């Protein structure tokens, strides 16, 4: 759970830094990235228990 939280916080920090440089904060890509991280974590968690 800690790794998932750190990955999401890293995505948000990267999004904020990128927005500072480009002056363009697009929330759609951030939400898709966080959703993808969550899905990847849940799939990886299920596969690690089955092996």
Task: Write a short abstract of this structure.
This protein has 51 residues and is an all-alpha fold. It has two helices and no strands. The longest helix is centred in the last third of the chain and has 24 residues, at 27-50.
Structure description:
With 51 residues, the chain is an all-alpha fold. The protein has helices spanning 2-22, 27-50. The longest helix has 24 residues, at 27-50. The mean pLDDT is 86.
Q: What's the rounded overall pLDDT mean?
A: 86
Helix content: over 70%
Report the strand count.
0
Low-pLDDT residue spans = none
N-to-C span: 20 Å
Count up the helices. Answer: 2
| Strand proportion | under 5%
Q: Compute the gyration radius: what is it?
A: 13 Å
Run of helices and strands: HH
Dominant shape: elongated
The helix-and-strand class reads mainly alpha
Mind summarizing the main beta sheet? Answer: none
Write the layout of secondary structure elements.
Blueprint: H1 2-22, H2 27-50
Helix pairs in contact: 1-2
């Amino acid at each position: 759970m800690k790794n998932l939280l750190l990955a999401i916080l890293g995505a948000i920090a990267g999004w904020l830094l990128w927005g500072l440089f480009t002056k363009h904060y697009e929330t759609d890509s951030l939400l898709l990235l966080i959703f993808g991280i969550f899905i990847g974590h849940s799939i990886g968690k299920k596969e690690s228990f089955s092996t």
